[in-house]
Amino acid sequence: MKNLRLQRGGPYLVMLPGLLLLALFSIYPFLFLVKVSFQKYSPVGENNPYVGLKNYIQLFQDHNFWNALKVTGIFVTSSVVLEFVIGLGLAIILNRIGIGQKWFQSLMLLPIAMAPTVVGLMFRFMMNDQYGVFNYFVEMLGLDRTAWLSNPHLALPALILTDIWQWTPFMMIILLAGLKGIPDEPYEAARIDGASAWQTFRYVTIPQLSRMIVIALLLRTIDAFRIYDTIYMMTKGGPINVTSTLSWIVYDKGFKFLDFGYGAAICVVLLILVVSLLTFLLNKIDVFEVKVKP
């Protein structure tokens, strides 16, 4: 009987350290965050009174929040979609390369190995309007120098370009792994049936790759919502808030103005948005699963 109890309780004992760490570093901070969002909380204040939904009401009346929501939507959609398209193209090319494939893969993965702060600082220098390499090529084309990061129309595209440069290889390596796992039989059947290259890609490659596509999109979307380091190094939310994302205004309100309650409310809303989006994507997995037409 004692051995039977040990056998039944063994898995729970093995899981216990992990559950404790999860509670300590994930569950408790989340509950504390929700609690703070209902307070007028400041680390320098002695009293942190509860204010109910005041932070959330203030949030939805704040034009800076709506601007940050719009900027976040544009940034996440543009960067993730372009990274997926370019990453899929690179994955298909690398999958067909025989000699030197590993060397190409290693070179293309170098941007991921760099810290976002380093990438942001590097692109900040490259886009400098006086000595940046971007303006060197612009002048070679006979155009005038451009202030990439201080121009309200170019700052956000410059930020998106930087993100694409760093994280497209992430998409590429996941999709390449998926392509490597596709068996040859469906391609041979499509070839025998006389399918064109586009038909083979549409009705064989995409359905077989659907799970990896969803995984890549989910992981990259989650990470894109959290962008902060690159913004801090390149634009600091400017000019005139055109690169101010939700993550940036959390820092701005919480750590610059020490209004932790308001910052926590933004975090809760951001979490709800991300979870809702991910739930929507997970429910749409079947959209990618298209059967091969006879």
Automatic annotation (TrEMBL):
Give the residue spans that cross the bilayer: 12-34, 74-95, 107-127, 154-179, 200-219, 260-282
Q: Report whether Cell membrane shows up as a keyword of the record.
A: yes
Q: Does the keyword Magnesium apply?
A: no
- Domain ABC transmembrane type-1 stretches: 69-283
Q: Where in the cell is it found?
A: Cell membrane
Q: Which UniProt keywords apply?
A: Cell membrane, Membrane, Transmembrane, Transmembrane helix, Transport
Tell me what this protein is called: Sugar ABC transporter permease
